[in-house]
Each structure stands twice: as structure tokens, then as C-alpha cells.
């Protein structure tokens, strides 16, 4: 008599606490997307020259980059729950501060403070989320978690511009502050000690702030996100030069494509590891940049947007899940801080580098030039896989 063995039921991803951290993260990212396209306009209302707008965006990113390594170390010692709550409270207060800004210098100082809290919140929230996922579904979980931030990109910028055009900057800042407060209120329901804490006497607590195991995926994500810095900054200007209307659709299509891809890519990662996702994603990004360089009409622009969304939606969650997979539980705060620092640096450096290239070569050649860092990411990944295969072969040969 043959007995049928039922396969084990995979643990549920959608726990109460995981749902809450996804919702809290969503409110934070809508806050961010509301302000991203509107603050350059606000600079003019406080008497700032056009060049100041770039600094208003730039100091925010630099502040987040500066705080992430330190907050990652604190998370691993004190816990991600406390860092998230305090970070969200300060995030709310800094957002509320825009209501009293009437000059450029105070605006820049507030942007630094807001960027610091952004670095704390996104690092802590990512760590909380990774600890609330079943290990066997971490790739899928990262895809779902990131999906909530992608949804904010679909309507956040358009909503922010609409509020400013139909109401006022004060209404915009009240809305953004309300979202920050909603994120804080949601996170309050998540248990404080959801993250494995390393004591000062444990080896994990005494390791460097940037872990060796995170270098590879973080280097790859930095190279990939150089392309996002270039695209986010210069696609609107490129489309204007080519006379292509309704550029905002590029970001909507890109965001929707990324949302559709993230869950699929996460499941593929869980089934077969990064090799089932990363090469395909990198190839799609190369295709997108090539399409951008050839763009002459809206159809081609939206094709490039879709390819880019599918590519980035495959690569980013896979690299983040791979980062977590390569690090022990007591160091996930450092791992997440390194990973998000690489993203921030990639976007910031990509924007600056793209500006230099545009002045020298023009838009089509600039987009093609950004294929080089994507190829660099592919070579890093290929080198790692080859090294792993050589180690495995040597182990097989040495075994009896």
C-alpha cells in the first residue's frame, strides 16, 4: 500500500505585523513622492534661484547616505522597532516644519534634517520587514514589501502637483505631514522587539559597520541605480527636446511595470536563487537604455519605460533578498543600511554624471553610456558565480 505524502504547506507571508509594516512604508513613500516634484517649485516661492533646486534634492540624499551606516549599527544593538518609531516621529516633525519655511537657507537645513530621518526610517522599516518574513519566502516578501513603495510612484508625484496647482503649498505640507503621522500610528501597532538584537559582547555587534558579505550585492545595486539617477533626472528634459508630450506617463508606466514584476521575481528568487532573476533583469535594463537613445515618439518612450520597470523590478528585490541571505540575523540592520546607501549613492551620482555627459555628448549617447555600469554589474555577478562554481568543484574533487 502506497502512502501519499503531502508537500509541506509554506508558512504564511501575510502576517498581521508584516501587513502593518507594508502599510507604514507606503505612507512614508507617498510623503516622499508628494514632495519630490513640488519642492523645486517651492524654491521659487521662497526666492531661491534655479540652481538651488538641485541642492534641495541633493542634500536630502546626502543626509540619508550619511546616517544609514550609523543607524544600521544602532539597530543591531538596540532593535529595529525602537529606531523605526523614533525615526517616524522625527520624520513627521520635519515634514511639518515646511509650513514655517520662508527662505532658502532654512529650507536647506530642514532638508538635511528630513533626509536624516528618511535614512533612519527606511533602514529600520526594511529591517523590521525582513525579520517578519518567513526565511523560505524572503525573496517574495521583499518583492511585496517594495511593491507598496512602487504604488506611491504611480500617483504620488501627480497628486503633489495637483494639490499645489489647485490649492497651495500649505495644503501639500499638511497632507505630507498627515501621511507621516499615519505611518507612525501604524508602526505603533508592531511589537518593538521584532529584530534579533546583538549584544556588545557578541561577534556580530563588533563587526565593521559595512559588512564584507554585503559588498557584492551593494556594489551591483549602486551600478544599476546609476541608470535610475540618469533617467529620473533627464528623461523629462529629453522628451521636451524631442517634443514628446505627457512625459509623466513614463514614470507611471515604469512604476506599474515594476509593480507587476516584483512579486514574480521574488518567487523566482525563492525557487532558484539570484541566477533565475538577475541576468534577465540586467538585460531588460540594457534594452530600455537602448530604446531611450532611439526614442522619437511617445510609443518608443513608453516601451523604454516598460522595459526599465520590468528590469529594475526584477533586479532590485532579488539583490536585496540576496543581501539578507548572505548576512546573519544579528547584522541585518547593517546589511540594510549598506544596501540602501548604495541605492542613494547610485541615484545621486548617476544624476551628476548624466549631467556631465549630456553637456559633452547629448541625450542619446548619454543613455547609451549608462549601459556600461549595467554591464559592470553583470560582470561582477558572473565573476561571483564562476568563483562559487570553482570552489564547489574543488570540494567535490576533495571528497572521497
Features:
400 residues, mainly alpha, Growth Hormone, Chain: A, 2 domains, globular, disordered N terminus, disordered C terminus, membrane, transmembrane, MFS family permease, transport, transmembrane helix
Helical stretch tally: 14
CATH fold naming of the largest domain = Growth Hormone, Chain: A
Strand tally, please?
Answer: 0
Give me the secondary-structure category.
mainly alpha
CATH architecture of the largest domain: Up-down Bundle
Content of β-strand: under 5%
Described by the principal axes of the CA atoms, the overall outline is globular
Name the average pLDDT.
79
Low-confidence parts lasting 5 or more residues at pLDDT below 50?
1-7, 199-210, 389-400
> Strand-and-helix sequence, N→C?
HHHHHHHHHHHHHH
Query: How helical, in percent, are the residues?
Result: over 70%
- The CATH fourth-level homologous superfamily of the largest domain: MFS general substrate transporter like domains
Give me the Rg, rounded.
Answer: 22 Å
Membrane topology: Multi-pass membrane protein
Main location: membrane
Keywords: Membrane, Transmembrane, Transmembrane helix, Transport
Subcellular location: Cell membrane
Walk me through what this model shows.
Mean pLDDT is 79; it is low at 1-7, 199-210 and 389-400. The chain has 14 helices and no strands. The longest helix is centred in the last third of the chain and has 30 residues, at 332-361. Helices cover 78% and strands 0% of the residues. It is mainly alpha-helical and 400 residues long. The chain has 2 domains: 15-192, MFS general substrate transporter like domains (Growth Hormone, Chain: A, Up-down Bundle); 207-392, MFS general substrate transporter like domains (Growth Hormone, Chain: A, Up-down Bundle). It starts with 15 loop residues before the first helix and ends with a helix.
Amino acid at each position: 500500500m502506497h502512502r501519499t505524502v503531502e508537500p509541506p504547506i509554506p508558512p504564511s507571508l501575510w502576517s498581521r505585523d508584516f501587513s502593518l509594516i507594508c502599510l507604514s512604508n507606503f505612507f512614508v513613500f507617498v510623503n516622499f513622492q508628494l514632495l519630490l516634484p513640488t519642492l523645486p517649485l517651492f524654491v521659487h516661492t521662497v526666492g531661491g534661484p534655479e540652481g538651488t533646486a538641485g541642492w534641495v534634492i541633493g542634500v536630502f540624499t546626502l543626509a540619508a547616505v550619511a546616517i544609514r551606516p550609523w543607524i544600521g549599527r544602532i539597530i543591531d544593538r538596540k532593535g529595529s522597532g525602537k529606531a523605526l518609531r523614533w525615526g517616524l516621529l522625527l520624520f513627521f516633525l520635519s515634514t511639518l516644519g515646511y509650513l514655517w519655511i520662508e527662505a532658502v537657507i532654512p529650507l536647506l537645513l530642514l532638508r538635511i534634517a528630513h533626509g536624516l530621518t528618511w535614512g533612519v526610517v527606511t533602514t529600520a522599516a526594511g529591517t523590521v520587514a525582513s525579520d517578519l518574513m518567513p526565511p523560505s519566502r524572503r525573496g517574495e516578501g521583499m518583492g511585496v514589501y517594495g511593491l507598496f513603495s512602487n504604488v506611491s510612484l504611480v500617483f504620488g508625484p501627480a497628486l503633489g502637483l495637483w494639490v499645489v496647482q489647485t490649492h497651495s503649498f500649505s495644503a501639500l505640507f499638511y497632507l505630507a505631514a498627515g501621511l507621516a503621522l499615519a505611518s507612525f500610528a501604524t508602526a505603533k501597532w508592531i511589537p518593538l522587539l521584532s529584530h534579533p538584537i546583538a549584544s556588545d559582547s557578541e561577534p556580530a555587534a563588533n563587526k565593521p559597520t559595512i559588512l564584507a558579505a554585503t559588498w557584492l550585492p551593494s556594489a551591483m545595486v549602486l551600478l544599476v541605480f546609476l541608470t535610475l539617477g540618469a533617467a529620473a533626472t533627464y528623461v523629462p528634459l529629453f522628451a521636451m527636446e524631442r517634443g514628446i508630450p505627457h512625459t509623466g506617463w513614463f514614470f507611471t508606466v515604469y512604476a506599474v511595470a515594476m509593480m507587476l514584476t516584483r512579486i514574480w521575481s521574488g518567487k523566482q528568487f525563492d525557487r532558484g536563487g539570484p541566477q533565475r532573476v538577475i541576468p534577465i533583469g540586467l538585460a531588460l535594463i540594457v534594452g530600455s537604455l537602448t530604446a531611450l537613445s532611439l526614442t522619437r515618439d511617445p510609443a518608443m518612450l513608453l516601451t523604454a519605460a516598460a522595459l526599465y520597470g520590468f528590469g529594475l523590478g526584477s533586479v532590485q528585490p532579488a539583490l536585496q533578498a540576496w543581501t539578507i541571505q548572505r548576512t546573519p540575523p544579528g547584522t541585518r540592520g547593517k546589511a540594510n543600511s549598506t544596501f540602501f546607501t548604495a541605492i542613494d549613492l547610485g541615484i545621486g551620482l548617476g544624476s551628476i554624471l548624466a549631467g556631465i555627459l549630456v553637456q559633452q555628448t547629448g541625450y542619446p549617447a548619454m543613455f547609451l553610456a549608462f549601459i556600461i555600469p549595467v554591464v559592470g554589474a553583470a560582470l561582477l555577478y558572473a565573476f561571483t558565480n564562476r568563483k562559487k562554481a570553482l570552489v564547489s568543484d574543488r570540494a567535490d574533487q576533495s571528497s572521497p
